[in-house]
Design a protein that fits this description.
Helix 1 (about 25-35) packs across helix 5 and helix 6 crosses helix 8. The chain starts with 16 loop residues before the first strand and ends with a strand. It contains 8 helices and 11 strands. It is of the alpha/beta class and about 240 residues long. The strands form 3 sheets. The protein has a 5-stranded parallel β-sheet with strand order 2-1-3-4-5, sandwiched between helices. It has helices spanning about 25-35, 50-60, 75-85, 95-105, 120-140, 165-175, 185-190, 200-215, and strands at about 15-20, 40-45, 60-65, 90-95, 110-115, 145-150, 155, 160, 180-185, 225, 230-235. It has 2 domains: about 15-140, Rossmann fold, CATH 3.40.50; about 145-235, Orthogonal Bundle (Arc Repressor Mutant, subunit A), CATH 1.10.10.10. Bound molecules: calcium ion. Calcium ion binds near residues 66, 68 and 69. Calcium ion binds near residues 24, 66 and 69.
């Protein structure tokens, strides 16, 4: 069986971390398998009550949300998420007429899929379509690098960069003034914020890790330039 069929010849949208909120263990496992086979990273939750806190802690790229859930139902969760973010949401419902009704309510979901008949391939195709769309919108509307000071999080074209606190501070400093060259000693001052000793040699290894993470997110390998004997510089 070809996983992801139905997405036609469109390119895959790139890996995404998907929060799967589904209380039927068999369905949740099946969805997770198909998402993984399509290159995504699923995380399953069976109860609606903790969903908002889990999403806020981990900031998944997309939420696949069942309508009928113990703890807190899908529609309420959809509103909770919408109140604090623009994360793409795909809702799963038991019946087709329910999907129509939900779409009419404009709860803020990006798409609605019927579980009867259940087609995990269709779900993956819709997830990919929503990701492609939302990433295209993000790419047009915003500069590619988003540094969220309050959330201590950084994203490249909507994709969360999994940074350590030091890497985050390094990126924040460098990207604040693209093109400006920062000597290592100056970067050290910024990184000393938590009182821990950081050596100039350690700056190099943090830059190396940061550069690798940016590259993995699609930012290219030259986003942070090395000026030998001088320091580092962020290229916008
Ligand atoms: Ca359910």
């Amino acid at each position: 069986m070809r996983v992801g069929a139905g997405s036609g010849r469109l390119p895959a949208p790139g890996p995404a971390r998907v929060l799967v909120v589904e209380d039927e263990p068999r369905l949740a496992a099946l969805l997770a398998d198909y998402l993984r086979a399509a290159g995504h990273e699923p995380e399953c939750v069976a109860d609606g009550a903790g969903v908002l806190a889990i999403w806020q802690a981990r900031r998944h790229d997309l939420v696949l949300l069942d309508l009928m859930l113990p703890g807190r139902d899908g529609l309420a969760l959809c509103r909770d998420l919408r109140a604090c973010s623009a994360v793409p949401i795909v809702m799963l419902t038991a019946r087709a007429d329910e999907a129509d009704r939900l779409a009419g309510l404009e709860g803020g979901a990006d798409d609605y899929i019927t579980k009867n008949p259940f087609s995990p391939r269709e779900v993956v195709a819709r997830v990919n379509a929503v990701l492609r769309r939302s990433r295209a919108v993000a790419a047009v509307a915003l500069p590619p690098l988003q540094v969220d000071e309050a959330g201590l999080a950084a994203r490249w074209q909507g994709r969360l960069l999994e940074l350590t606190p030091i890497e985050f501070r390094l990126l924040r400093v460098l990207s604040a003034q693209p093109g400006r060259v920062y000597p290592r000693a100056q970067l050290l001052e910024h990184l000393h914020g938590d009182g821990r000793a950081v050596t100039e040699r350690a700056v190099d290894s943090h830059v190396k890790n940061l550069r690798r993470k940016l590259e993995q997110a699609g930012a290219g390998s030259q986003r942070i330039r090395t000026l030998y004997g001088v320091g580092y510089c962020y290229e916008a």
